Amino acid sequence: MELPWVEPYKIKMTEDIYISTREEREKWIEEAGFNLFNLTSEKVFVDLLTDSGTGAMSDKQWAEIMIGDESYAGSQSFLKLKKVVNEVLGLPYALPTHQGRAAENVLFSVLVKEGFVVPGNSHFDTTKGHIEFRKAHAVDCTIDEAFDIHDLHPFKGNIDVNKLEEVYKSHPKENIPFCLITVTCNTSGGQPVSMENIKAVKALSDKYGIPVYFDAARFAENAYFIKEREDAYKDKSIKEIVKEMFSYGEGFTMSAKKDGLVNIGGLLALRDENLYRTCGNFGIIYEGYLTYGGLAGRDLGALAQGLMESTEHTYLKARINQVEYLGNKLIEFGIPVQKPIGGHAVFVDALSFLPNVPREEYAAQTLAIELYKEAGIRGVEIGTLLADRDPETRLDRFPKLELLRLAIPRKTYSYNHMDYIAVALKNIYDRRNEIKSGLEIVWESPILRHFTVELKKSNSVSNVLNSSRMNDKI
């Protein structure tokens, strides 16, 4: 008999979590303005809000915490990180930042100006926020297959090169600072980008003289899918794939809290020395000196070790298998999810799940609230709230998919937790036709509203009237 597959690690420490009652959860979520970000952690049983900075670190990473060099300049911990960025990721210049959005802020402060357009594959929330804050425009060029949850295309994160070329043709070259490839593509369901597509985007961009950059938060998971799904790479190591992948770009921004396997940190890596020097000035202004960038030395050392570990196949197989296990359980229960299952999360199609809740009443957020009340599970909406308002019309932007994301922290929860999540969703699915109304906004910020929005249960009649009035203005 063949031995079963097991996780390639053992557990050294556990953390107690409080098991609340439904009555408590219903009270807490109403007090939180029906915004799951407003809940304090002790009120959450299984936290799937994000996989960003919420995972468990290895013993070797904790060792780096203990031996961190806290020198203001020239830290040995930074030199470890710089060596990994050069040797594993293939880029000579590294600017650490306190997290990924800070790396975006530094790079975009140099490259993105008012009136510019930044094409890519479904830019994520902070990326789009940084672009629109500068009065520029993010243009989504993702392939159409990404928005059909039943299509089994193996690389739904791919950029449609025809859409991309149309952007290149219809805008002056000087108004397109770069093309941004997000790996994996979070907003389309944690879906990977193929190496073939990366090469095609690079070739087209070279033709028009446009640089290519990566949003590399989940670069290692993307490399795993390339190894598993592209025949030309099945015999390549993850590190070989990663190095080739980044060879087609001029640099990347990274939230290191994902595939860096750390609890805090970001990274801007660049190929051009002059751009590095210019970005370095902004890094010093916004983050800290060049060799620490808003992080303690111990964090730099843990990140260097984490980047080494996340680019090992054994770790990635364990990571992605657990996500796939949850996705397959939900599929068995008939629950509509984005297929194939993505790298870091399972994405539930809220519009199919809750057919009686109008889009204007934020179906994905409604489903997220129902899941919390049912079982104390905190997910996150990837839908109309996150898509925000059009910066010019100030009307809601309705994305092609309205999703509830269940992001799985790395090496944190057991397979029993996955079963618990699946059954909780099935219980809601079994009574889905009883859920006929959603939520409406009480207060929102002018940008990135989903983090701080305050909501209340919808008055469906008034919402329909307001929606009609908004449509009259379009």
TrEMBL record:
Protein name: Tryptophanase
SUPFAM superfamilies linked: PLP-dependent transferases (SSF53383)
Residue ranges the record marks as coiled coil: none
Gene3D superfamilies xrefs: Aspartate Aminotransferase, domain 1, Type I PLP-dependent aspartate aminotransferase-like (Major domain)
Organism: Moheibacter sediminis
Domain Aromatic amino acid beta-eliminating lyase/threonine aldolase: 47-422
Family: Belongs to the beta-eliminating lyase family.
NCBIfam families, per the entry: PRK13238.1
Keyword tags: Lyase, Pyridoxal phosphate
Annotated positions of the N6-(pyridoxal phosphate)lysine modification: K258
GO BP annotations listed: aromatic amino acid metabolic process
PANTHER family: BETA-ELIMINATING LYASE-LIKE PROTEIN-RELATED, TRYPTOPHANASE
Nucleus keyword on record: no
Example of a GO MF term: carbon-carbon lyase activity
InterPro entries for this protein: ArAA_b-elim_lyase/Thr_aldolase (IPR001597), Beta-eliminating_lyase (IPR011166), PyrdxlP-dep_Trfase (IPR015424), PyrdxlP-dep_Trfase_major (IPR015421), PyrdxlP-dep_Trfase_small (IPR015422)
Cofactors (names): pyridoxal 5'-phosphate
Record's keyword annotation contains Lyase: yes
